[in-house]
Amino acid sequence: MGLFGQKYSISEKRLLEGATDHHSHILYGVDDGVKTPEESLAILSVLEEEGLKSLWLTPHTMEDVPNTTEGLKRRFAELQALYNGPIDLHLASEYMMDELFEKHLSENDFLFHREEGSVLMETSTWSGPYNFWDMIDRTMRSGYRPVLAHPERYEYMGDKDYARLHNMGVRLQLNYPSLLGYYGDHVKEKAAKLLKNGWYDLAGSDFHKHRSVIRLLADKSLKKDGIESLRNILTV
User: Fold this and answer.
1) Cβ-contact 94, 59 below 8 angstroms
2) Taking CA 176 as the corner, what is the angle to CA 175 and CA 178, rounded to the nearest 5 degrees?
3) Cα 92 from chain centre
4) Which of 12, 138, 166, 208 is 20 to 30 A from 145, comparing alpha carbons?
5) Distance (Å, rounded) from C-alpha 127 to C-alpha 187?
6) Is 125 left (phi over 0), alpha (psi -120 to 50) or beta?
7) How many CB atoms lie within 10 A of CB 172?
8) Contact at 8 Å (CB) between 155 and 132?
9) Contacting residues for 160 by C-beta, under 8 A, at least 6 apart
10) What is the pLDDT of residues 41-53, one digit of tens each?
11) Which residues contact 147 (CB under 8 A, 6 or more apart)?
């Protein structure tokens, strides 16, 4: 139950009206997300109905999914040719902090997220790279602005880590399904705390499948007291 014994769904509150989704895996056929152009277009159709303004397509780039900048640009151009709806589509990538990331860093080869020099980065859920802080520091000294994807999901991080990242100027990106318990109660609590602290800079869905889009939009567990804070970063 939400505040005052009421429940609210993402769809009922029109939280995606005029919003920007900064993290999704609905560029088809490039990672563990959407596989076909038909599914990409079906998801976009649903998001149109929700009033979404802008969508960032952020497929994985990692050792296990070694996408190239040029390959992703080609696939993005294919989707743009197929889609003629009102949502503004943008291309970036979600870079795992691994050896392939080191190669991209040394070659200055990134698809930027939102603005020139801004790089969407992630680690594994359970453990970061042994040189995590060094990689963050070197990325910034190389002239890039890290955007850390879904930090609430990183089990190895605590309050001091989040404070350090925030104070360094690393942008933090919320997966808003975290607030609905999609990754468990512990992640939900961490996300709520980071949101309350005002440490999130932007938000995204991390959508991978059509069925997850439908499930999320119908979710009834969003609390009234979290709606405005969430809306604020959804419209960034």
Assistant:
1) yes
2) 75
3) 11
4) 208
5) 15
6) alpha
7) 23
8) no
9) none
10) 999 999 999 999 9
11) 113, 114, 118, 119, 120, 121, 170, 171, 172, 173, 201, 202
With 60 as the cut, is the pLDDT of residue 3 above it? Answer: no
Q: How far apart are CA 137 and CA 115, in angstroms?
A: 19
CA atoms of 170 and 37, how far apart (whole Å): 34
Q: With beta carbons less than 8 A apart as the criterion, state whether 26 and 44 touch.
A: yes
Domain 3-234 belongs to what architecture? Alpha-Beta Barrel (3.20)
The single-letter DSSP state of residue 109 is: -
Higher pLDDT residue, 139 or 236? 139
pLDDT confidence of residue 4: 30
Confidence bin at 221 (pLDDT 50/70/90): confident
DSSP β-ladder status, 94-96 and 60-61: parallel
d(CA 23, CA 27): 11
Sign of CA dihedral 101, 203, 218, 90: negative
**What pLDDT sits at residue 70?**
98
The structural domains of the chain, with segments of one domain joined by +, span 3-234
Q: What is the DSSP letter of 151?
A: G
Reading the block at residue 23, the tokens are 């993290």
Q: 173 to each of 28, 119, 166, 176, 236, how far by Cα in Å?
A: 22, 12, 11, 9, 11
